[in-house]
Amino acid sequence: MATKIRLKRMGKKFYAFYRVVISDSRNKRGGKSIEEIGLYDPNKQPSLIQIDSERVQYWLGVGAQPTEPVLRLLTITGDWQKFKGLEGAEGTLKTPEDGPDAAARIEAIDAQAQKLKAAHSADAAKTAKADEQSQAE
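Structure for Small ribosomal subunit protein bS16, as requested:
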């Protein structure tokens, strides 16, 4: 039986996330899988990638072949380099920044937009007043 490490699509229309699964190569994309070994959510910033490194190493060791998208994910997490014995086994996985929550960031951006809007309207009022004075003369 030829096994593949592939993505299984989940979620709603236009808001998909994926599970990284081990399945028979003859099964459908969303069909029955042997084992679930991770998650991939491209909707978050930065994208959420959670893969069980031990299970990936096991399945690669017994001959499971990753698909191209999964191979890119394994390269990001460093699991592919670890399996092949290459440099860069720590990977390039980015984690979300620690800092103000989303509501606070939205509030700050909103406040900045209001300041810009007020400055723009003040400039527009000055130019309108200057135009009126030049027409009155």
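The longest strand covers residues 3-12.
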